[in-house]
Amino acid sequence: MLIQLAIMGLLAAMLPLAIVWASSDADKYRKLVWVTVFLTFDLIMFGAFTRLTDSGLGCPDWPGCYGHANPLQAHEQISAAEAAMPTGPVTVAKAWIEMIHRYLAMGVGVLIIAIMVIAWMRWLKSKRQEARFSPGLPTMLFVSVCLQGAFGAWTVTLKLQPAIVTTHLLLGMLLLAMLTWLGARQSAVPASSPDGRRLALSAAVGSALLAVQIALGGWVSTNYAALACLDFPLCHGKLVPEMDFANGFELWRHLGKTGDGDWLPFPALTAIHWVHRNFAFVVVAWLGWLGLRAMRIDATRRTGRRILIVAGLQFMTGMSTIFLKWPLALAVVHNGGAAALVLLLTMLNFEARSAAQAAVNRAATRLSAA
To answer: What is the pLDDT of residues 287-343, one digit of tens each?
Structure first.
C-alpha cells in the first residue's frame, strides 16, 4: 500500500514538474517555486472543501483507505459502512474526496522535496555565493510539510478533534506563507524606500491579526458553529447574546463535547461564532489602513491595492455566508480569501523589508562615495 501511495504522490507531482520543465522561463527554479505556491493554495481550498463536506473521515484510517491505496480497492468496506449509515462520515463520494486531498498533499510534498534538493545543489555548487539559493528556508519547508502530514494523520486518528484540525489549517497557511516568501526571494528587489521599515512593522502586525482571525475561523468551522448566529449585525437579536466562553474555547476536547465529556451547549457555539465575527472588524479595519498606506509607496503599491480588494471581498463573503446560511461554494471561497490574504501580506512584508534594505544600501553607497 505504501508503495502505491508513493506512486500516487509522484504522479500528482508529474504534471506540475512537466509544466516547469517545458516552460520557456529560463529560471526553472523560480518557476517551480511559484507553481508550488499555486498548488499549495489549491490544496488549502480543496482541504476546505473536504472539511466542509464532512469528508475528513471519508476514509477512517491513515494513510490509506481501509488499508488500501485507493477507494476502488476498499469499495466493499466503504459500501458496507455507507449501507449501515447512509448519511454517516463514510460514503463512496466522501472517501474519494478525502483520498484526492491526500494525493494532492503528497504531490505538494514531492515538489517541496524537489525545491529543497535543487536549493542545496545550487548552494553548494555556487560555493554559497547565491543568496536566493540559501537552503535554510527550503529545508524548513520540508520539515513543515512533514509536520503538516503528521497533523493530517492525527486529524483522522483523533476523529476530527477541533484543536488538531484547526492546527492543521494554520500549518497549511504557514506553509503557503513560507513558499510565498521563497518565491518573492527569487524575484527582483523592488525600488528603495525609507518608509519601508515602518510599513514592514505595520505589515507584521497585520499578519499577526490575520493569523488570529484564521485560527478563530478554523475554530468556527471545526466546531460547526457557522450557523450559531443567523442575523447580522446582531446575534439572536442582541448585541451581546448569551455565550459560554469557557466551554467554547476549551482547546483540548472531542468534537461536539465539553472537556468533561458532556454535549457542547449551544451558547458555547454562539461564543465561538460571535468572537470570530466581531474580530473580523478589527482585522478588516487594519488591513484597509495598511493597504492604503502601502499604496503610497512605489515598491508596494500594487500589493497594497490587492490587499484592499481581497479584504473587502473577504468581508462581503463572510457576511453573505450568514445571510445565505453557509452555502458550500461560498464557504470554500471564504477559505480561499483567507489564503489569498496570507499570500498578499507575506508579499507585502517581503517588499517592505526589501525596500527598506535597498534604501539603507543606497544611503551607504552614497556615503562611501562621498
So the answer is: 999 999 999 998 899 999 999 999 999 999 998 988 888 899 999 999 999 999 999
Taking alpha carbons only, the member of 213, 48, 29, 191 closest to residue 126 is 29
Indicate the number of domains in the chain.
2
- One domain, residues 156 and 200: no
Catalytic residue of the set 76, 82, 98, 351:
98
Instruction: Assess contact for 140 and 178: CB atoms under 8 A.
Output: yes
Cβ neighbours, 10 Å, residue 135: 19
Find where cell 470570530 sits: 276
| Segment 159-187, tens digit of pLDDT | 999 999 999 999 999 999 999 999 999 87
Report helix angle 301-323 to 266-294, nearest 10.
160
Do 216 and 359 lie in one domain? The reply is: yes
**140 and 216 assigned to the same domain:** no
| Whether the Cβ atoms of residue 216 and residue 322 lie closer than 8 Å to each other | no
Q: Is 250 a catalytic residue?
A: no
Specify whether the backbone of 39 is left (phi greater than 0), alpha (psi in -120 to 50) or beta: alpha
Same domain for 83 and 136, yes or no, is yes
